[in-house]
Design goal:
22% strand; alpha+beta; 147 residues; 28% helix; binds zinc ion; globular; 6 strands; NE0471 N-terminal domain-like
Length: 147
């Protein structure tokens, strides 16, 4: 993307690029309508220009945070984006309020960012990333056939 300027492409990112090599038509990564159900606390829904509909829970989005820190942490523990952190082995589990954004902001024309109720806000969720991680049955089937 031209507006991203020059950036260092790590081995990790290069690998991710290979994984995401399947090119999507532009209509598939342009949202026609974005609904963030912040008050209801349910999640985000996007109607794409190609007619596809995606929805994600806030918990999924929080666990899929694409920032470098979260990405590395997931890689280290072998989790997929959106997969929750295992809660086992904690004799005194602390109550964690369910993830919810306190602030939602567009990032240019290509992404959206959330400030979460746990204070984390470094993730930039590009439309491309979101479309590739659509959680609908049809797309999930496609993902599993690919791997
Ligand atoms: Zn993060
Ligand atoms: Zn889908």
């Amino acid at each position: 993307m031209s507006h991203e300027g020059i950036r260092f492409v790590s081995k990790e990112e290069a690998r991710r690029t290979v994984q995401q090599d399947r090119t999507l038509p532009p209509e598939a990564t342009q949202p026609a309508k974005v609904r963030v159900n912040k008050t209801e606390g349910t999640g985000m829904e996007i109607d794409w220009k190609d007619g596809h509909h995606s929805s994600w829970t806030f918990a999924w989005l929080r666990n899929a945070c694409p920032c470098a820190t979260c990405h590395e942490e997931r890689e280290a523990s072998g989790r997929q984006p959106g997969e929750p952190r295992p809660k086992a082995n904690n004799p005194l589990p602390m109550y964690e309020p369910p993830p919810r954004p306190t602030l939602v902001a567009p990032v240019g024309r290509y992404a959206i960012s959330f400030t979460w109720n746990d204070g984390h806000s470094s993730g930039i969720y590009s439309w491309d990333f979101l479309r590739r991680h659509c959680t609908c049955d049809e797309c999930k089937l496609h993902h599993s056939q690919q791997s």
